[in-house]
Amino acid sequence: MSALLKIRRASPMLTVQDRGRRGLLHAGVSGSGPMDPPAFALANALVGNGPEAAGLEFAGFGGTFEVTAPVRIAVTGGEAQLSRDGTALAPWESHDLAPGQVLSVGALKDAVWGYIAVSGGIETPPVLGARATHLRTGLGGHEGRALREGDELPLGETAVGPCLRLRSPLPRATGPIRVVPGPQDDFFDEAAWAAFAGGAFTVSATRDRMATALEGQEIRAAKGHDIVSDGTPLGSVQVPGSGRPIVLMAERQTTGGYPKIATVASADLPRLAQTPSGAALSFTKVSREEAEDAALAARRALALAIDTLAPKGSLQLSSEYLLSVNLIDGVVGPEAAEP
Amino acid sequence: MTPRILAAGDQALTVELSSEVDEVVNARVIALARSLADDPLPGVEETVPTYRSLLVLYDPGTVRGAALGAALLERLGALDVRAGAARLWHVPVEYGGETALDLEEMARMKEMSPDELIALHGSAEYRVHMIGFAPGFTYLGGLPERLHTPRRATPRQFVAASSIGIGGKQASVNSVAGPSGWRFLGRTPLVPFDPAREEPFLFRAGDRIRFHPVTSAEAARLDAALARGESPVTPEVAA
Predict the structure, then answer these.
(1) Of B207, B173, B204, B208, which is closest to residue B191 (Cα–Cα)?
(2) What is the per-residue pLDDT across A251-266, written as a single tens digit (0 to 9) for each?
């Protein structure tokens, strides 16, 4: 009998996610997976899981949880208010949770999407090669749906290990969201580009795992707002006839018939996902090469954050290691005393 | 039109062969996807064939978009479009009944009897131009012009899986239940998408489809056979 994670109370948007379905876009199957992949990957790493393990994603607040075997848990995504039997715990680090204790994951103060990882990972049956939930088609996760009070999820074997914490927060860019023009950038004239790349937008309350709608100056496509449907990569900024851009996110459909003025740089997509509704944002054009460089830098930063996770209470981080990854440049003070 | 490489962010690009729907273009798109599956280029992770373009997902840690774009154009130039056999499916359709939401109204619009409309729909050979929108949803080309019909002004909230549809110039075999503004003539007992099946997707881009009317009794017999796990309909493989 495997260990269980018991859902005592659930956020209305609490789903099982793993890093997503791969290789089936040609069959119309959305990748799904986390809205903020680096935060999700860190949650897994903090509890000693591999990157393929499944965890929970929530929006707003998490819920309350119990387990039937001792585990480690971690909550990431933002400054979540969480507690174990009423005692506050810190996000972005792992904590022990024993049977009989109640984990409560409250509101995210500064973000939209939060992650709860449990050591061993959630082991609902994989569907089409992944555990990620795709809500619109009812695929994967737990019965293809958002979780509810009373649900019980099987957990994998928990390896014994220490509770971990981050050495330093994951660096996240500030400033305008970077976009690469295309694929249908030539549908839009200079005035439309000025409205898009120069304009001020706010994130609409109309948002979900599929798309983030934006409000601001209307963008007109000089060549019209209909194309013969083509593929829709992650981060596509499609502009329907309303003139209001919509950024396609994790649970997007695989093809679409609106012109796509630009694609959000993958390094900035988690930041866009985590921008609260009503908050202001703007876009700036970058070249594909610049966006590729940013993607690779973000990948290195995440790998470094994972590789340098430290047991809680320990103060030492190997200087040799940091030198070996050639990324310290005074960013991390390895000998600094930390709480 | 000369093929173009369109940027689609830092991990995808689009090989665009045309801006229009065209049988020959679509065959080239599918042949390019097949070529990349059989003989992968380094860094290519996934492809999405559509009517007129191929979306190519790549890992910028292995290949940069600029270099990949050049390699894809080169591959396209050397492509053997006739490589690979096209499958032909004979798809049984129960026209009429509960799932034929628009049969009567379309017959009135087209000033023909429902039987004439069914015969016309069943007279054509269709081609799966792409699978998109939802798991296993088939976009078909080849709909006779008289059956071209604009979508409904107000989409329906629920259309059953396996419905046989018409949307503008396109035809469909729907795969999952959901909202739709298309017109529907009936349903097939075949199940285009079943995640629990060994081969979850029945159709793939490039397949050919012919529709054959069956009675509701025959449809019920096929439903039962499929429920037992049998495969009463298999495709012909033609050169």
Answers:
(1) B173
(2) 999 998 899 999 999 9
**Each residue's pLDDT tens digit, B123-181:** 999 999 999 989 999 999 999 999 999 888 888 889 999 999 999 888 999 999 988 88
Domain residue extents for chain A: 4-165, 180-290
Q: How does pLDDT run across A286-298, given as a tens digit for each residue? A: 999 999 999 999 9
pTM of this structure: 0.91
Q: Percent helix, strand and coil across chain B, each rounded to 5?
A: 25, 30, 45
Q: Does B136 touch chain A (CB under 8 A)?
A: yes
Compute the nearest-CA separation of A114 from chain B (Å): 25
By C-alpha distance, the chain A residue nearest B196 is A127
| Mutant choice from A230, A283, A290 vs B, greatest count of B C-beta within 10 A | A230
| Chain B (76-105) residues lying within 8 Å, Cβ to Cβ, of chain A | none
ipTM exceeds 0.95: no
A180-290 classified as CATH 3.30.530.20? no
Computed from CA positions of residues B91, B92, B95, B100, in that sequence, does the dihedral angle turn out positive or negative? negative
Contact assessment for residue B139 and residue B167, using Cβ atoms and an 8 Å cutoff: no
Instruction: Sketch out chain B's domains with CATH numbers.
Output: 4-77 (3.30.1360.40), 86-238 (2.40.100.10)
